[in-house]
Amino acid sequence: MAQDIDGGAITVAGQHPLGERRPITIEDIPWEGFTDPAEPNRPPGPFVRWLVDPASGNRVMHVHSLAGRRAEPHWHLSDTLYVVTEGEFLVEGEALPYRAGDLRWVRGGFAYGPESSGPEGAKYLFISLGPYDKLDPDEFAPPLGRWDQPDTWVEGYPQVHRRTLLAEDPRPPHDSGGA
Fold first, then answer.
1. CATH of the domain at 107
2. Domain assignment of residue 51, yes or no
3. Are 146 and 93 in contact (CB under 8 A)?
4. Do you know which InterPro entries this protein is assigned to (predicted)?
């Protein structure tokens, strides 16, 4: 079902090519309706502009959340960045709304409360810094804690140790002798 958002038609997921190593003009990418399989009864939306091919397993998108919309509590496998471009983006348990120009960073493995958009809606860039997944904290315990249970919070940056999961470090040996 095609709708119109900000004067542009919404396309079906995957109907436009996204190439790597070339400029992508965000405003030229059409909005698409996003359906979250984890929330099948949620009304349509948000709307997204895929900026990296979702088939890659990565998530880089421009999101348009309509006024008052809400997403249930969840957590992601990888660290995520949100860069608000318009409106207000709110997260239960976080002190202030995020506004245009604000950056939000969440460590992968930390569950956060419901997200919602302000009275004018919100637009933001969403960037997953690694493999993407969206997990329900009531079904899958988040390894770094939950927003609503401070006694579960894990401090520090355990993601730095992910390299130890590799059988062998793929980087060439570092020559510390100078040039």
1. 2.60.120.10
2. yes
3. no
4. RmlC-like_jellyroll, RmlC_Cupin_sf
